[in-house]
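Researcher: First entry.
Model:
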Amino acid sequence: MKKGLSRRNLFKFMAVGGTTAVAAGCEQKPEKIIPALVPPVEFEYMPNTGYQYMTTCRECDSGACGMMITAREYRAQKAEGNPNHPLNQGALCALGQASLQTLYNPERHAQPRSGGEVISWEDAQSEFVSLLQQSAGQIVYLGRPTVGSEGAFVDNWLNEVGGGKRIAFSLISRAAEQRACEIAFGRSDLPDYAFENAELLVNFGADFIETWGHPVQNGRRFADMHAYSDGKKNRCIHIGPHQSLSGARADEWLPANSGTEAMIALAMAYFIHQRDPRYDFLDDYLSPYSPELVAGDTGISVDKIRSLAEEFHQNSSLAIAGGTWNSSEQATATQVAVFTLNAVANNLGKTLR
C-alpha cells in the first residue's frame, strides 16, 4: 500500500487518534497506536507521564535515606530524596543521585550463572537449595551492614535453612565506635548525635559530611547548628593532624599530633571533672591525663586545652570522633575517651543520645 494520506486513512486516523494523527500526514499501523490507548492489564499507566515510587537508598552503608524514583514507561529515570522522610528530608547525596548508573550498568548480571555460564532460574534455585542442604550449620552470610528489620530477616532465614553466621563487612567500619558504646554505656549500638542541639561542636577527625555516619543527615543537622541565628553563630572546632572537607567547615582547626586525639579528649574531661565531678569512679581513669601531662605529646598547649574544656563545659556541646585512626588499634580507646568527655560535660540525653 502506498504511503500517504488517503480518504480511507483520514477517517481511520480520526477514529483512532484524533487530530494529532492527521497532522502526521503518514500512515501508522493500528497495532502501534492501540497499546498507548489501551494500557496493559497488569499495570495502568499514561504514556509520557512520570510516576513516583518511594523506596530506600542503599548506595552507602548508612542505607537509610528515603528515595523517590521517577519512572516512565516501566523504566526508572530519576532519583531524588523523599521530602517526607525524617532523616534526609528530600536531600540526596551524589551516590544516591547516581544510583541509576548501578541499575543500568551493562556489567550487571541479568541472569544467574554457574561456573561462569548462564543458567536458568529453575536450575539456579535447584543448585542453591542443594548447596544449602549440604552446608547446614556451616553457612556464612557475608553482606553490608543492615538497617531496619533486614538483619532480623537474614538471621531468621539462616535459622530456617539450618543455621549459620551473618557477617557485616564495610570498608568504612564503625565497629570500634559500637564496641566503645558497649564499654561506656553497656549497650552495643551506635548513638545518635544531635548536632542541632549543640552550641559548640568539637570534632576529633570525623568526616561527618563525607563518609562518617549518615552524611546527608549530618550535613542537614550541622547546617542547623552552624547557621547564624538570633544574633549569634555556634562554633565548630576541628582537632586532628589534617583538614578534611568536614574540617574545612570548622571555625577553628587545632593541628594535633597524629594518634593523640584520645589524650586531648581525656585532658579536657580531666579539667571538667576537677571542677564539676559527676562520676567518682573516673578519678583514677582521668588522673594521668591532666593538660600539663599531655600537652607536650599532643602539640596543643596547656592554655588551649584548658580554654577549650572550659568552653565545652559552659555551653551545650557535643564531641564526635572518627577519621583515619578509626581503623587503628587506638580506635576503640579513642571513642571511649570521647564518650567520657561527653559524659562529664553532661551531654548524655541532650546532644549524645
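Researcher: Second entry.
Model:
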Amino acid sequence: MTAKLGFIYHEDFLKYNFGKGHPLNSVRIQMHKDLLELNSFFNNPDIQLIEAKPCSDEDLLTVHTPDYIDFIRKLSERGEGSVDDKDTPAFKNMFEITKTAVGGTVTAVDEVMHGNIAHAWNPGGGFHHAKRDSGGGFCIFNDIAIAIKRLINRYNVKRILYLDIDAHHGNGVQDIFYDDSRVFKISLHESGETLYPHSGFEEEAGIGDGKGYNINIPLPIGTFDEAYIHIVYELIPLIAEFYDPQFIILAAGADAHFLDPLSHLQLTSSTYIRIAELIHNLSHRFCGGKCIVLGAGGYSLNATPRIWSLIVSRLAGVELKDEIPVEWRSKYTEYFKDDHAPLKLLDDNPPKIDPERYKKISKYVSEITNRVRENVFMLYGFFKLIK
C-alpha cells in the first residue's frame, strides 16, 4: 500500500549547526517534529516516518566539482574556517552531516519514484544557495540540484517544476540549471536590492535551451498575503498547464513570514497553507501526486515550526488542532526563556498593512504578474509552433 506522505528524518539533521548565535538553529526541526508528535500525526497509517540515507560522493559529483567537495572535506576535518566569507562557518564533521541532509532529499526522490509514497517532506533539505564550486547562505551542498539530477539521470524525468518560496532568491539552483528546459524554475523572493544573495531579478530568464524557463519574481519590502497569493494563483497553475510537469519540487522556506528576523516580507501562516494546498492539487493533476517539499529557510523559532506543520498537514490531508499543546509551549518557554510561546498554529496577531504601501505593492504585483503571464504565453505559443 502506498502511503500518502513520507516524513524524511535523521538525527543528524539536528547536527547541521553553525554554532551559538547563528541564525540557522536546527532546533527548529526538532520543535516542528515535536509539534506533530503531540498531535498524534505519526499515528496515521497514511504517514511514514522514513530515515534519511546519506548520499554518496557520486551523488555530490553530479552537481559539485571535485575540488569543491575536497575543500569541504578538509574544512570538515579541521572543524574551523569558512565555506564562504563569513555566513557559513565550518564545523566538525560537517561533510558527513551535510551528506545526510542531502541524502534526505535523495531519499525523498527515491521513495516517491519507487511508488512507496505519494509525496515526501524533508524539513532538513532545501539548500538552494550552493553552487557547483562554492557554498554560501548557510548552504554547503545543493540537495535540490542533486535531487533534480537524480530525477533526470536515473528516472528519465524530462519536466520538473521547481517552485521556491523562500524569502531569499534560489541562486544556486538557478545557476546550475540556467540553460536547461528540463527544469522550470520559479522563485518568489524579496528583491535582491534589499536581501541576500542580491540576485533574482526579472531579467534573469535563462539562456539557450533554458531561455524562458527561469522566472524570478522579486518582491518589495512589506509584501503581504493578498499580493503574494495573487501572484501564486495567477501564475503557477498557468505555468503547470503549459509545462505539464512530471514531478514537482517546492522549497517551502518559512522566512517570508512577518516574524522572520532575516527578511522584510509580511506573510502569515495562512498563505503557506494555500500554497501547500495548491502544490498538492497540482501534483495530483499533473504528476500522479509526485512531489517533494523541502524545509529551506525559516529563522523565527516561533513561526517556522508552526508553518512547516501546517504545510505537511496539507500534504498528508490531515487536520491539526489549531490550539498548540501545552507541553510544546512549555518546552518553547524553557528553551528560549521566553514567556510568549504561540498559542495557536495560525497567526493570531497578523500585521496591519499601511494603506499607501498596500496600494503601491498591489500595483507592482499586478504589473509583474501581467508581464510574466505575457512571457509565458509567448513561450507557450512558440512551443506549440515548434511542436
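Model: Note on the second entry: Residues 355-386 form the longest helix (32 residues).
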